Amino acid sequence: MVNKILCVGGSPRAGGNSDILISYFLKGARDVNITAEEVRLRDYNFQTCTGCERCRKDKTCTGLSDDMQFIYPKIIESAGLILVSPVHNYNITAIMKSFIDRLYCFYDFDDERPGKWSSRLGRQGRKAIIAAVAEQVGSKESGIDLTLKAMRLPLEALGYEIIAELPVTGVFKKGKVLQYPELLNSAESLGKQLANAIK
């Protein structure tokens, strides 16, 4: 693991508000001289977890051979992680859910089920930021709370400390987030905060 940040975008729409926020997260991190890399999930061809459970024995995902094999090393080597997802039907996007489900291979389990488990990414000082972008305003109407929770709980289980969350509501039209400099400044500032936290 190195002082590097991986920013994972779960939007299927290219050049939209999620992508713009990601660029500001990355700018903030790079301003602190931290290597920061972006993964746009829509550019990768991967399947959702099939529940084959081969990773319980093999300690890596061997049940599927796809582009997640290119993303796993980036996760392992990065001390910082940023997840950004637009809200789709009150929750994270399908591609972000598939990505999170494929992180199941990082868990170790006891033979007895249900039983004890641990994460091979845990206890390493990994830190993360999560962000969600919603069209509607208000937590119940927009689904922003559920969307953030759907990213927060899996990352915490994997051993990440969530140091900040950025909920963005009332934004839908492509590029509209550019009309809100305070949000862009927040993303940039949080990028710097994460970079400093993993130094």
Task: Provide a compact summary of the structure.
The chain has 199 residues and is an alpha/beta fold.
Word description of this protein:
The chain is of the alpha/beta class. It has a single domain, classed as 3-Layer(aba) Sandwich (Rossmann fold), CATH 3.40.50. The strands form 2 sheets. A 5-stranded parallel β-sheet has the order 2-1-3-6-7, with helices on both faces. A two-stranded antiparallel ribbon has the order 4-5. A hairpin with a 7-residue loop joins strand 4 (107-109) and strand 5. 37% of the residues lie in helices and 22% in strands.
The CATH architecture can be given as 3-Layer(aba) Sandwich
Identify the strand order in the major beta sheet. 2-1-3-6-7
- State the shape: globular
CATH class division: Alpha Beta
Briefly note the structural class of the backbone: alpha/beta
> Low-confidence parts, pLDDT < 50 over ≥5 residues?
none
The residue-averaged pLDDT reads 95
Number of domain modules: 1
Gap between N and C termini: 12 Å
Say which CATH homologous superfamily is assigned. Answer: Flavodoxin domain
Number of strands: 7
Which bin fits the share of residues in helices? 25-40%
Task: Count helical runs.
Answer: 7
The Cα radius of gyration reads 16 Å
